[in-house]
Write a structure and sequence with these properties.
With 380 residues, the protein is of the alpha+beta class. It contains 9 helices and 21 strands. The protein has 3 domains: 153 residues, Gyrase A, domain 2 (2-Layer Sandwich); 82 residues, Alpha-Beta Plaits; 91 residues, Aminomethyltransferase beta-barrel domains (Elongation Factor Tu (Ef-tu), domain 3), CATH 2.40.30. The chain is 20% helix and 31% strand. The protein is globular. It starts with 18 loop residues before the first helix and ends with a helix.
Amino acid sequence: MTQLDDFGFGTQIRKSPYFDATVRWGAKGYSVYNHMYIPRDFGDPEQNFWNLVNDAILCDVAVERQVEITGPDAAKFTQMLTPRDLSKLAVGQCKYVLITNADGGILNDPILLRLAENHFWLSLADSDILLWAQGVAVHAGLDVKITEPDVSPLQLQGPKSGEVMKALFGESIMDLRYFWLRELQLDGIPLLVSRTGWSSELGYELYLRDGTRGDDLWEKIMTAGKPFNLKPGHTSTIRRIEGGMLSYHADADINTNPYELGFDRLVNLDMDADFIGKSALRRIKEQGVDRKQVGLIIDGEPLSRSNTTFWPIFRNDATIGKVTSAVYSPRLEQNIALAMVATGEDAIGNVLEIETGAGRVRATIVERPFFDPKKTLAVA
């Protein structure tokens, strides 16, 4: 069994409430995300993918830190942070949102959860939105409190995740709709459960609200999942690229705007409410963008691993973009990628060249997502 000391972890990076459990259950490698360790390796990533799409996996995603917004002006303040119209966001509902700066650049792409009329969580991707929100609040003139609560999510994802949830919570959990939440307890462990996840499969997130119970929660879920072939796992790069899901710092960053990603639906310039970046995004929409995100099929032998650098894209030896995320999909039996290319070069069917570091290969622009574009698996 792998020993904790083998990893040589320091104290300056935080560990999740599930950390010891992940080591015990076979985690072989970790990365750092939101100043915390996250398991990235439980063995073969292709087997992790098949575990996810055929059965179910449990992932430690406590790195998805929560920014909690409360107070009399919480709803107004939360709307300031995002260009997505929140006027119809009900208590108990979740939405995928973008956090933008004054230039229209994307600072984060969290899931927003509304726990009560004036109680919100932003479940974060990898950037310091707690500091951003606290800074915005200083001179906002609004009565709000911005904190990071003791909340640590797990992701239970895959077609059998519903069966595991029934074993844990009973038949009533099947009433939980896609992108809605429910506050529950499991043997005295306080939780918030949502029908969300970073996999494009049927899935749930279980937000632990007491960090001392992390080991208990992990073991209870794994025990309940044993009859359904539940395995410990990590978020699947293969599946998220198949689903066209973004990884912040790879497919989007502070210099990326929503229109480059085709996220027009997440920007409402016509609502009365003001938000940070509204004038910049109006200008960008009027002027148009210089580049757009596309999907690619890359020729050649199966990629042995996902890219660790941005691969340049060429057309007639002129650099016209970059590959941001690439991987081999064993289900599609193709190398697939998300990329940014110059506007005018983004037509479906365009053939380009990519420098992978091992030589140039051909790639063809295709529709994205690559699999289940209407998310029928996640929504069902």
